[in-house]
């Protein structure tokens, strides 16, 4: 589904990614971990299509297509979903309207009719209940005056409504309490299916107590320095990231 080959990227004069290789198949959950400043958010922003970064080498294929050649709307329409560390606030646009517009723009891209109001409301109700969200939040502006936990829920609601093919969640665990972590995990787990894949970017192992990844990668110094299964996350929690640097020095 996603194939990242020898990806090099920079922002301003700063070379951030220095040859990232990653393959994600349908049905898989990948966790990307790594020390602060290692390029995790940069990688997710590039998949999302943010323009602050310049790809200087390498490529990203998404279902065989050149992802870097697709604009943000196209990526979204093709099923790529990005949830960000700091969800944006959009004044004057209600959550409900935002969600329906987002769903309809995906439909339009695929030459499908807009979702019927009744169908939309039923789906919204079902997901709000699952996430324990109050429906009055749907009439408020996107993320405006939401608490951290409410923003997190809202992000997962967007994901649940849009049913992306590839979801990328960039999580700073800072400020996320156990309840919020569980919401994220439940959202990711609910999306698990043979056709979909998720990449969870996370600094801490704690989130992975609730989401069991198929593959864990460590990004350090702009490269994936280690890949393994979920046991790698436990090893990192136990030893910290330092041991990887020691290994690198020893070899
Ligand atoms: P992580 O998410 O792993 O903590 P980031 O991808 O946010 O790491 O950042 C990696 C490095 O790139 C950091 O040194 C950061 O300061 C730098 N960086 C990130 N974004 C930009 C930018 N837009 N312009 C310049 N430098 C940036
Ligand atoms: Mg950071
Ligand atoms: Mg980050």
TrEMBL record:
GO terms for molecular function: ATP binding; ATP hydrolysis activity. SUPFAM superfamilies: P-loop containing nucleoside triphosphate hydrolases (SSF52540). The keyword DNA damage does not apply. The keyword Calcium does not apply. Pfam families: ABC_tran. Gene3D superfamilies: P-loop containing nucleotide triphosphate hydrolases. It comes from the Bacteria. InterPro entries: AAA+_ATPase, ABC_transporter-like_ATP-bd, ABC_transporter-like_CS, FeS-cluster_ATPase_SufC, P-loop_NTPase. Residues 2-246 form the ABC transporter domain. Keywords: ATP-binding, Nucleotide-binding. PANTHER family: ABC TRANSPORTER I FAMILY MEMBER 6, CHLOROPLASTIC. Belongs to the ABC transporter superfamily. Ycf16 family. This is Putative ATP-dependent transporter SufC. It comes from Rubripirellula obstinata.
